[in-house]
UniProtKB/TrEMBL annotation:
This is Glycoside hydrolase family 13 protein. Residues 40-431 form the Glycosyl hydrolase family 13 catalytic domain. The keyword Glycoprotein applies. One of its GO terms (biological process) is oligosaccharide catabolic process. GO terms for molecular function: alpha-amylase activity. It holds the Pfam family Alpha-amylase. Residues 1-27 are annotated as: Disordered. Belongs to the glycosyl hydrolase 13 family. SUPFAM superfamilies: (Trans)glycosidases. Keywords: Glycoprotein, Hydrolase.
Amino acid sequence: MSQHTADPAQAPSTSASTSASASVPADAPTGWWRDAVIYQVYPRSFADSNADGMGDLEGIRSRLPHLRDLGVDAVWLSPFYASPQADAGYDVADYRAVDPMFGSLLDADAVIRDAHGLGLRVIVDLVPNHSSDQHEWFKRALAEGPGSPLRERYHFRAGKGADGELPPNDWESIFGGPAWTRVADGEWYLHLFAPEQPDLNWDHPAVGDEFRSILRFWLDMGVDGFRIDVAHGLVKAAGLPDLGAHEQLKLLGNDVMPFFDQDGVHDVYRAWRLILDEYAGERIFVAEAWTPTVERTALYVRPDELHQAFNFQYLGAYWDAVELRDIIDRSLDSMRPVGAPATWVLSNHDVTRHTTRYANPPGLGTQQRVAADPALGLRRARAATLLMLALPGSAYIYQGEELGLPDVVDLPDEVRQDPSFFRAAGQDGFRDGCRVPIPWTVDGPSYGFGAGGSWLPQPASWGALSVEAQTGVPGSTLEMYRSALAARRVHPALGAGDRVAWLPAPEGVLAFRREPRGDGEAFVCVANTTGADVRVRVPASARTLLTSSAADDIQHGDGHAVVPADTTVWFTV
Ligand code: GLC
């Protein structure tokens, strides 16, 4: 194998991220969330306590010790509210009630209390862009007919064409098909997602009042924060103007759309921030804001708005050193002036798991249904995780990635439930593959997910990937995550700060140094994204702290280390 030489011991280069002048003032607040590792629980697929094949809150409560042992700081729970489940709970019928399939408000209270007892914070999902079509407001709006004041809380319009038979504008649903549905009396309503998810009208004062009250309800329940669903979508351009493009899906993510990332959303978040700050305990907001650039994302986390925003540009990057370094620099550079931590995420419930994405050549995007080389995918995914966890800021982990779970790419069509699959033109048609219930035990009817089946079928390989199978096994993916998260606690330099110091590295390799805040050890992280081993120079004092390649001993000594193909190594120096 070819070997290259890099010298992480040399002085750092002055890259954009090390030389930017604007910086967080020295006395900036250093909250727990600035370098927190936050674990996403997808309730229906985490743990099932009553053998109905569907995960629930009591199941989550019973498995919280796993998250404590894993070493995360907080848990983010995807929606568990009363919902007809047209979009797996992202269609909320009652924002103050728990869906019976997940349990009760008492169960939610028990999860929050137990999590706190274990030292874990709890973040809940808030879905303000749209309600369910079974929400009381929408049901009444429909029943009362045109002219009903309730219709003003949504976007009802007359259609175009001689008989109003055409939608009011040309917007398409993110899930495919028109973004408008016509009701029996002839009016149309807007839904950027499924027809069962009518968009709320944030120009109507009652909508803002209601959500401020919902915020208080859950804050009073003791939650530590909110993940804001479709945070970029609440405000629509005045007059709902036509897009005038026939390929909206290609534009999404690249341009500011009349229904996404409108400047008016920031007024909403300023008002929310005032409420949050009334509560003790450093509670936080994290935005799901798909914006065209990290620079636009930074607007959501200005000091008087939200705390964090997911870094989807990072998630969308391939396992490629140039692409990764570029997005790391741009992320740090755009967050530093507003004083917000960068965030890093590789997987969630809406995209193909990174183990599967990296099993394929670049270019397939975040939705794909194949895994060309699963072993390579896992190797790269583990390396990508150690890279992510060495970056300054906060990192998000999606349930099951600590087990190295791949997407289930061969689910039969008849078991699929993702609404976007049925509106096949949508961008996210294949989200069921990352939502398969996770395995806890080697055997059992659903590998310990529950005492019954599971709402999506689990592959036969799931037992060998279970928590039980990997616990205590040196080099297993689970033990690698545990070691990495334990190291972040012992060595705060790993997640702290707002910059990395890049070191010279050969093509395909990322090497950077991380400094401790006070006394303590510095780190060097070397990520080799190439398919060949790389020889790097390391200081004589360097010790290997952790490596992503289970079977590879890092050859080390004489001021050099050999970093194997598709591997990340952490060195203390
Ligand atoms: C967000 C959620 C996704 C959901 C959509 C509509 O993108 O993450 O799962 O389908 O919003 O609520």
